[in-house]
Amino acid sequence: MALVEDIETIEKHIRQLQVEWDKFFAGIEKKPPNDLKTKTEALIRRHANAEIKNNTERFRYQSLTAKYTTLNELWSKRLRAREEGKPVGVHGLKADMLPPPAPSPPSPSARAAAGRSGAGGDFRVQNPDRDVESVKALYQSFLQARQQAGESAPVKFDSFQKLIHSQASRILSEKGGQAVDFRLETKDGKVSLKAKVVK
């Protein structure tokens, strides 16, 4: 049973790592998720040399290990490129250098989108490909919250939009539901995004 539980945990950790690395490369998080990375690798190593007799469990373990290895190589490449000052795209490809967008007041359409958001300051995204105005409204609020919290690192709208698209698509695919509500939270001077599925 320990193996089954570890496999479930590895799968959960990999999903969480994808989200946390996306946040880091988008400039939303200041540090890479090294603690979670270490925990995941420790779980993978625990069964690396063990004989897994159950075919289903062995297949799941090998598939997750291969997936993690591929993703980890991608994250490492993007991290090296970031440290060397090379712009990279979402999939590790070279991207055009663009100046950071200056914060501007939300447009009327963005304010309207915000008005259609969920209760309590949530921003609702039903279709990541079409709900551009909701994402823009969330982006403007995110910039304002970061400015108020004293965070000065620039965040490009393209990177932010890709992050929201990635998280919303993953949540809707895994959990089902009609939409995803995004909420901004500020804790200890740090602005973060919280997502919640809407059934």
Task: List the keywords.
199 residues, mainly alpha, 3-stranded antiparallel beta sheet, 6 helices, 56% helix, globular
Topology:
Blueprint: H1 2-25, H2 34-46, H3 55-83, H4 108-115, E1 123-125, H5 132-149, H6 157-175, E2 179-187, E3 190-198
Antiparallel strand pairs: 1-2, 2-3
Helix pairs in contact: 1-2, 1-3, 1-6, 4-5, 5-6
Task: Give structural notes.
- It is built from 6 helices and 3 strands.
- The chain has a 3-stranded antiparallel beta sheet.
- The two termini are 32 Å apart.
- About 17% of the residues have low confidence.
Distance between the termini: 32 Å
Strand order of the largest sheet: 1-2-3
Strand content: 5-15%
Secondary-structure class: mainly alpha
Sequence stretches where pLDDT stays below 50 over 5 or more residues:
88-120
What count of helical segments does DSSP give? 6
Q: How many DSSP E strands?
A: 3
Quick recap of the structure?
It is built from six helices and three strands; from the N terminus they run ααααβααββ. It is mainly α and 199 residues long.
